Amino acid sequence: MDYGFSKEQEMIRKEMARFCKKELSREYVAWMDENVDFPPGELWEKFREIGIFQAYIPEEYGGEAISVLDSMISYEEICKASMSVALAVGASIGFGARFIGELGSKEQKEKYLPLLGEGKAKMCMALTEPAGGTDILGAISTTAEEKEGRWVINGEKVFITGAHASDYMITICRTQMDAKPSESLSIFLVPSNSEGITITRIPKISCHHCDSVGITFSNVEIPTENLIGTRNGGWYEMLTVLNPERIGCAVMGVGLMAAAYEDAFQYAQQRHAFGGPISRFQILQHYLADMYINLENARNLTYKAAWLCDQGKPYHLEATMAKLVASEGALHAGRFGAEIMGGYGICMEYPMQRYLRDAYQLQFSPISNEMSKNMLMQFQGLPKSWA
Ligand SMILES: Cc1cc2nc3c(=O)[nH]c(=O)nc-3n(C[C@H](O)[C@H](O)[C@H](O)COP(=O)(O)OP(=O)(O)OC[C@H]3O[C@@H](n4cnc5c(N)ncnc54)[C@H](O)[C@@H]3O)c2cc1C
Questions:
Q1: Which atom of ligand 1 is found nearest the CA of 161?
Q2: If you measure from the C-alpha of residue 204 to the centroid of ligand 1, how many angstroms do you get, rounded to a whole number?
Q3: What is the whole-number distance in angstroms between the Cα of residue 379 and the centre of ligand 1?
Q4: Helix, strand, coil proportions of the chain in percent (round to 5)?
């Protein structure tokens, strides 16, 4: 067993850390958090210049096809600097490149993968509906009907990350009403500027500079060739594509935890009370020790899941555990990081309050921690405890 990064991987990490230090300074991230609902174009351009989007595209479409493990190593640094930016960049790559790369036709791959690789097309994924996200099969009611050589979409989606800034929405709809939901879903590529689309902001406490929005589709017409994958086969196709999303979300928790731990560790040494640094108080050391242990655990699980994925081995168990441990660890780190900083922990002047706010959304997105535990025991052979 070798738990270390290779020289190349260490270089990837260092380069992204250097990039983030320069382009995602604390001041700039705080400014974005208060002023924008998506990373500005000039920042997108800088990510484009370092080839971040290209890195994930298959080589035959002009990309570098780097491994999931390598991508997570560089992604952790972005997550540490700003989870909102990581989400914005990750949604386009994780949803756009994966759905089209895995399920797209040759024509779709030729048309869209180079655009994604050049960072010229932003994509999001619209699955969740107002009636519920955990029980999405029971809730989904957005329909796509084939009429006169077009698909016509009607319905409503909610919490769709980055949809307001996207060029295309990967949208999951029912295409057959008289079959089981799992055998009646199809996936579509919907141009975001299509007539009949209305976007509604959802103000929330977390990830201010990457909004998740509501979308209404009212008789939205798209060409028949915008079906991705097979008609009515979308549910099972989508599940295979979405598995690595849990690894990506786990790494967000790891990045948040690392940032909160480092800030709290440093603060505890600088802040004085009763004639010395507060870092000498055992209870605060215990808070830090718990954060440090959670971070190590979450990182190990996350990188193990990424490694298994690259080896073509089953990784759903590890990815689910990683997301759970990392999201809970991130919330704990924000909570106790703020505790260590006293009143300053909740002041906008310091990023600790942002880590705490951002960590909340990882508890139930993309899958809730309760549902994750249901699944873990189902994977272990216990009876399915839901439905
Ligand atoms: C900020 C944010 C960004 C998001 N981005 C996207 C996106 O880009 N695209 C997209 O499609 N979706 C997105 N989502 C949706 C996300 O996937 C859902 O919020 C998630 O699936 C939970 O669904 P829900 O919020 O409807 O909660 P519900 O499903 O209503 O769950 C409510 C509670 O009931 C619990 N529960 C439900 N069923 C069970 C059960 N069987 N056993 C135990 N407990 C259960 C849940 O764990 C939870 O605690 C996002 C959500 C948020 C908040």
A1: 8
A2: 15
A3: 20
A4: 60, 15, 25
